[in-house]
Structures are given as structure tokens and as C-alpha cells.
Design a protein that fits this description.
The structure is a homodimer.
Chain A lengths: L25 E7 L9 E6 L5 E4 L4 H11 L5
Antiparallel strand pairs in A: 1-2, 2-3
């Protein structure tokens, strides 16, 4: 059973988004589509080394670029 | 400390990918860029209701479309 199904996280997870271009430090990215608990898409990157979670702005062109780069399966 | 930093998951997580177009059932999507433990990008979707994790094919046009739809922040 996920935390979400237990009633946790029934709100947006992101308060602010990272403005620096941190594409090369990203280990993985979680995409959470807009839903009844949060009206905006949330993009949460986990950083290499530190494992820190950072919210990214879905409207920032560099963020779209990073995601398209990942799904294009390009080696980094 | 993440499981990954403990030495777990030092291999690809996906064995096979979902061929059915399950875009509307997706609660969230995790993108894992190619790395030293797995030479392909992995896309793991968590399904609404069941919370089941399903691997998606990064090369399938419908998968790219679903991801672009999410990052375009379109309501579903």
C-alpha cells in the first residue's frame, strides 16, 4: 500500500522550483500529472551523489529539454 | 539513505515493457536516464488505483506522447 493510498500527500509536493540548470546532476526524475490534489504537473528530480529531491518547473524550457533528452535515451 | 546508495538496484529494473496504451491509468512516471548500471533509459509508470508499477518502452511513440502531455501540464 502506498503512502498516497493511506491519505498522505494529498496536496502539491512542490513549494518552489529550482531555477538553476541542474540537468547533468539528475539521477532520476518523477513526473506527477495534475490531479485532484494538485492542479499543476509536478516534476521532482533526484540528484546524483546527494540523493536530494529538487522540484523543477514544468514550464521551463530547459526542464522540457532535459526530459526529452532522457526519453530520447541519449547517453550522458 | 536511498536503497540505491546501499548498493541495491545496481542493474536495470525493467525486464519487459507494457505494450498497451495505458496513458490514462498513469498516476505518476519515473524516468531513469541510462547510467553505469543500466544502458537504457527506464520509464516506470505507477498506475492509479492499484499502485502497480509498469515499465514503459522509451522508444514507443505513445509513451513519448504521454510524457509530453504530462509536462505540457494538460489536465486529464
Amino acid at each position: 500500500m502506498s503512502l498516497r493510498s493511506l491519505g498522505v500527500e494529498l496536496h502539491c509536493r512542490c513549494i518552489e522550483t529550482e531555477s538553476k540548470r541542474i540537468g547533468r546532476h539528475i539521477e532520476r526524475v518523477e513526473l506527477i500529472p495534475a490531479n485532484s490534489h494538485c492542479e499543476d504537473t509536478e516534476i521532482i528530480a533526484t540528484l546524483k551523489k546527494t540523493g536530494q529531491e529538487v522540484c523543477l518547473d514544468p514550464n521551463a524550457p530547459w526542464v522540457k529539454k532535459v526530459i526529452n533528452h532522457i526519453i530520447a535515451n541519449k547517453k550522458r
